[in-house]
Amino acid sequence: MDPALVPFTVALVVYVLVVLTVGLLATRRAASSAEEYFLAGRGLGTAVLFMALFGTNCTAFVLVGVPGQAYHDGVGVFGVNAPIVALGIPLTFWAIGSPARRMARRLGALTPAELYARRFGSRGLGRLLFTVFTLYTLPYMVTAVDGAAKTLASVTDGAVGESVGGLSVLAVALLYTSLGGMRATAWTNVVQGVLFMAFMLVACIWIPRSMGGLTVAMEKVRAHDENLLIVHGGGLFAPRAWTSWGLAISLTVIAFPHMLVRIFTARSEESLKRVCRLYPIALVLLWLPAVMIGVWGAAEFPGLEGRASDRVFSLMITEHLPAWVAACGFLAVLAAVMSTLDGQLLTLGSMLSRDVMKERGTGSEHPTGADSTGDRLGVTSGRVFGVVVALVVYVLWRAAAHSIFQVASVAFSGYVTLAPTLFFGVRWRRFTIAGATASILLGNAVYFLCLYQGGGMGAAMRPSWLGFLPVFWGFVAAVVAGVAGSLLSAPGDLQRQRAAFGD
Amino acid sequence: MSSRAHSRIALVLALLLVAMHLDFWRPQRPLLVFGWLPEELLWRLGWMGAALLFLCYFCAFVWREEG
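Structure tokens for the assembled complex are given below, as produced in the milestone run.
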């Protein structure tokens, strides 16, 4: 073996052993009931809940894509993203997550689609939500696998081919997820979150020291291009694009099914509140180093054009950090990929099992232990469908990885069109099936119309009508359609509303 | 103070924070405060500190325990 690969190989083996051990430790409890397998018994305390949410929320994009963007756009990348999500995400946890958690507990729902299907007494609505969730989540998973595969291939100098690397990452995530369900993914997220946050902090201290000190590093940046120290006014930084992007990134996270379902796992309201207070601090600790690595990299490695700037993360850590620390950096990228991928596998598998296949008798109607045979079948089908989802992701990745990147950027904003339905469904009793259906369909129709007018899938981040991003118009349409559709249709069943809202 | 009053205060503070985030009036200067901290980053970090304080207030007085 190439001696240069030893630190990374050792770190990788230790990491895989740790996450698989965590999965194994969670296995015994996971088999006890569907609620335990899919939602960790709704019993996660603050620390694990926070890491499960934050680890799932933060993808490899923050570690690799954000430095790549900051390389071109400077510190403005921090300003357009981190502050507004530090406020927006906790507020959506309160506005949607908290009442959804309580309602899911009352109705015995284990997935987001199941919650809304039960709230409205409509399996059709549950399936519609499942369909949109799946269409937006699969491209995301494909890009994650692709990123992990490329990282492995690049670190090992091609010794681990992309197809083998992607398959291995998917297999490891699937293995511990299938073994231990939600509890395994939550605890592995703790390991993964600690790994990538600790690495980014160490890198943020070590790199400028290696460049001659923080003052010297920043002066190098100013000498290279002082525009990197300000917000320039074009593209995403133009006022209306900035405003609509703030709306998008604040609302999209709660609409990720793999995030919303993790909120269902909170032991108490107090746990969720503590998570909200921790979020801004964690965002600073992760985003600030990511942006600064890109900014310093612009001065150190000028001339990277377009997406080539995504290489700045690996260039900087290889250049400035000792081999064993840099190995942890590459591992941090894999950890960030897997901390999201596991949640997506579990959530899509559980929705497929409970929201689509239930009529065929493969899911339990009594998830809290009233029917132990149904519970066991529910857990088994959740595991089987997790494998199905992983296979679909792998096939999609091998067949269409290149074209799916643009679809993933469309998906990120597309989730926002679901936010009005998720909000009204748990906060407004007069909200009806017709309102929810109209909101989802019209919101997405307007969103895609704006994309079409803007030139196709690549237009998700480009200003459209009146300078606002397509997601803004999709959101407005979803709100209007949800309100109008509800007011124009007959109110829902009172008995069902009382059961849902806990009267 | 009633919970409704706390909710109103929180709404005003939240709107104020959003307005401060949409700070297109602020002049952009490539200044390094203390010789190493870009003025733009200082502003954003200060904003996030204010958001953290707001969330502490919000969780304590507006987000009521239910269920």
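Chain B touches chain A at residues 14, 17-18, 21-22, 24, 28-32, 35-41, 43-45, 47-48, 51-52, 54-56, 58-59, 63, 65-67 (CB under 8 Å). Chain B is about 65% helix and 5% strand. Further analysis is deferred to the final report.
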